[in-house]
């Protein structure tokens, strides 16, 4: 039986969410319509918004449904940037840590290229944590900061980020902070109201809800310029007929209480260390996501290991992007000071609601042979027969 250890990429839909989704697909009526069928759809949609809001500690009116994490992040970063930049009032600077998800990296780089943004890249330490000192220094040096955007926890190496401290510094200067909580949702407690954040992005398919829906939590006091214009739905922030069935299924997943995956994660970490003593755990060994185990394996290509494990029926990830079939060295590991040679042996195992001890044990059983073969193959740009 196939073993799935790539829940950070996407996790299977929960049975309750599938059931709610399929029955909601029969709903008749646009939630914006005034007739009773429209109002019925609206009621169900708003109940879903309440469920999502309850899971994030925010007010339902602050929940803007989007198509997923990537759209939420684009809306937060571009929307805040545009709202805080007008011809007579320029605040072009964006503070952003190295090692963010590409949804953030590519968005801020787009703003740099087309909208004149100035990017202030904040360094990571060797465990993958953003430097709070660098945030404080940037605020001491500049008074033209539009926003700060950072991960709540790194999606590759699992390290929790000092969001509270960053918000404390930024708030003292009246600058909004956006948190990418896509990989943290249901893995860390999130209390938006208490956080002082201006905006927070989440995605349903990471918590057992459907693909194609997410949310941007936007504090009532925060203004963003919308990406999408149209019928003025959702406070005029995100126009378009709302997807009530997807929202309902999202709401069901949001209410599903997450269980701690730390024991299974530690079983992976201990097992890998026992099987391959040279493998190096990356990210913070303690302050890390409870579903993330990330290692670099010396002397081999993470992709080879991934393919060999796949042949054994175990799905894992290298954690980083693969462009046009060519593996890329992780920008997160680079930012942590890991050499390219070491970073190439990266492998990320992530757990979810359906994970079992048997999954972990099957992975650990397949690992030694896969590693031995991957080492024999060496690096892709060397002669594999050497
Ligand atoms: C940290 C993080 N941010 C953003 C995203 C993008 O979310 P989505 O797949 O919902 O667009 C992901 C997905 O992998 C993620 O892990």
Automatic annotation (TrEMBL):
Please indicate if the UniProt record lists S-adenosyl-L-methionine as a keyword.
Answer: no
Q: Which reaction does it catalyse?
A: (sulfur carrier)-H + L-cysteine = (sulfur carrier)-SH + L-alanine
Q: Which residues form the signal peptide?
A: none
Q: TM spans, by residue?
A: none
SUPFAM superfamilies documented for this protein: PLP-dependent transferases
Q: Which Pfam family, just one, is annotated for this protein?
A: Aminotran_5
> Keywords on this record?
Iron, Iron-sulfur, Metal-binding, Pyridoxal phosphate, Transferase
Please list the residue ranges annotated as the Aminotransferase class V domain: 3-363
Superkingdom, taxonomy of origin:
Bacteria
Q: Which GO terms describe its molecular function?
A: cysteine desulfurase activity; iron-sulfur cluster binding; metal ion binding
Q: Which cofactor does it need?
A: pyridoxal 5'-phosphate
By sequence similarity, the record places it as follows:
Belongs to the class-V pyridoxal-phosphate-dependent aminotransferase family. NifS/IscS subfamily.
Protein name per Swiss-Prot or TrEMBL: Cysteine desulfurase NifS
